[in-house]
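Appendix C reproduces, verbatim, an entry submitted by the partner laboratory led by Prof. M.T., so that reviewers can inspect both the input and the predicted structure.
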Amino acid sequence: MSRSAVDALPDLSGLLELAQDRRLDMKPVLLRVQTDLFRAAPARDPGTIRAFESLACGLIPTVDAATAAIVAEKLAPLADTPQSVLVLLAAHGGEARDAVLALSPVLTTELLDAAENGPARDAVIARRSDLSRAVIDDLTLRDDPAVDLALAGNSQARLDGPALERLVSRARRRPDLAARLVARDDVAAVDLAPLYLEAAPERRAAIRQGIAARAALRPRSRPLVRGLGESLKTFALRGERAKIEAELSAALGFGAVAWNFSEPRRQDLLALAIRAAGLLEEEAVYLFLRLDPAIGRSVEAVFALASLFRTTEPTTARDLLAAILGEEPAERVATPEQHRPVHGPASPKLRPATVSLRPVLPERTRKTQ
């Protein structure tokens, strides 16, 4: 080491004198001072790194959790920090482990083993900014609430494909997870369709647009139920809400659905269901006014539902309902008694094929010059 380098070293004679006092535990202070010196060094040659490694590895197992956490936050981001030092800090547990897992440029197998397996470790890893698609996929397979929340709240983690589908599926039952997912603007709105009811109005509009783009690629396949509008109006007049919900479920091919139209956040389902069932706008407005007092007495609610009805195509409404409710609509096929085609094999008017009575004429040979 050069003479100038030696002169630049700080005078630690005072610490050495204090360290000789057995009444004082100077190990935490000595580790923090050496950590600050190592971190502030303009250049770290192999000799300096080895000397620090030897000192730190001897002190880390003896210091308290608070000291270990402070040291870990300072050393973990440095590329020159020896792996042996990080391993000991990770093995210390608590905040020291979390700092190493969150800030270390590279997570080696040795580091992960020292941090021990478990949801707490995985949740910290899920907050890293450099997660690969394979790691994200693996983390979603853990099905751990803390890990899911960490991933959903990590704006730098790319969520798509099967990993996103798993999170969205679990978010149906977890409002805290759903709130984090719908708040992300980097996730395609159409992929968040199952969480439509948890989304803000602007996000709901984006989800409907995404569903509409997909629904436009296929034709409407489910026949409408004749007289459904009049039946629903009659039930609404009698106050038979349960029958209305049952009729809508049957008309749309869904099972027993708990519509709960009275809840403010679920009122959109009423407009979507009526639109998907093919009712006229006059019938829809009648139901908005008569089905539930909480809706009918609110001019704002009625206008909002009417606007949603007018601006949503039936196929879009049906696909969106299927995503929200987690239902796969059963296709309704008309029976022969309900429908007899005018043209086709089942038509009684179609004459059976007959043999042509016109004789087949021989081909004429064209004369050539």
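The chain has three domains: 20-116, 133-215, 228-325. Additional entries are available on request from the coordinating office.
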